[in-house]
Amino acid sequence: MNIDDWLVQQSQEGTLHSHGRFTRDLEKAKAKLGRYQLESGLYLAKWLQAGVLAQASEAELTLCGKVVVKLHFPELPSWTVEELIVGLENPLGAEPDAPMTALVQGILAACNSRGRVRYQDSRGQRLEIVDGEVSLDPTKLDTAQNKGWVALTVDGANACNEEKIMLGLRCGYCPMPIRVFG
User: Fold this and answer.
1) How far apart, in whole angstroms, are the C-alpha atoms of residue 75 and residue 148?
2) What strands, in cross-sheet order, belong to the sheet with 116-121?
3) pLDDT digit string (tens) for 11-63?
4) Which residues contact 54 (CB under 8 A, 6 or more apart)?
5) What pTM, to 2 d.p., does this model score?
6) Which of 174 and 22 is assigned the larger pLDDT?
7) Pairing of the two strands 148-155 and 116-121
8) What 3-state DSSP class applies to 70?
9) Which of 13, 31, 54, 152 lies at a CB distance of 3.0 to 4.6 Å from 99, suitable for a disulfide?
10) Does position 157 have pLDDT exceeding 80, yes or no?
11) Which helix (H) or strand (E) holds 116?
């Protein structure tokens, strides 16, 4: 077949495959697309990635009834919960290889697959996300605290089987020590 015949064939009317509707409701679109963002349990790898990128010295994981990830730092990352909220509201506006980007991607994926996520650090910063609603705990911060931890908790991760499988498949060669409980 020569190029002219091929072009004529390609320009003919197509056949109907199916009907569909597009929504203009941003919240509905975010919720639907969020379900396909990361495979289930992969939010845990994103949080560990954030820890590695932010130079955490180790990670502790509790995988029993709920998921708790505690990242230990010789020097706490400089991010604030306000920056975290901005990242959650505009996840595409972040630097691709930044620790905050991995943290935000993990939080969004955990919210979409598990429902409720809590963030807390040793300075006293606290944030909770439930069904897409963000609430900030106005606790007074200990700004003198320079080393410490960041903890992320996910409720509703019943048996944590997906997280355990993901941890074995995706985090076997993590450059930071990981202690697993449960």
Assistant:
1) 7
2) 133-137, 126-130, 116-121, 148-155, 66-73, 58-64, 178-181
3) 777 777 777 776 677 666 666 665 566 677 788 889 999 999 999 999 999 88
4) 71, 73, 77, 99
5) 0.75
6) 174
7) antiparallel
8) strand
9) 54
10) no
11) strand 116-121
CA distance 123 to 144: 8
- Tens of pLDDT, residue by residue over 72-122, are 998 888 888 888 888 888 877 778 888 998 998 888 888 877 778 899 888
| Cβ–Cβ < 8 Å for 166, 42 | yes
pLDDT of amino acid 141: 57
**Residue 131 — very low, low, confident or very high, per pLDDT cuts 50/70/90?**
confident
Burial of residue 20 (number of CB atoms within 10 Å: 0-12, 13-18, 19+): exposed
- Spell out the residues 6+ positions from residue 57 whose beta carbon is closer than 8 angstroms to its own: 72, 73, 74, 176, 177
Bridge pairing between strands 178-181 and 58-64: parallel
103 Cβ neighbours under 8 A, 6+ residues apart = 46, 47, 50, 79, 84, 87
Phi, psi of 22 (to 5 degrees): -100, 140
Q: How many other C-beta atoms lie within 10 A of the C-beta of residue 79?
A: 18
CA 158 to CA 148: how far, in whole Å?
A: 28
Q: Is 60 helix (H, G, I), strand (E, B) or coil?
A: strand
If you count them, how many residues does the chain have? 182
User: In the structure encoding, which two tokens stand for residue 145, read together?
Assistant: 């605290």
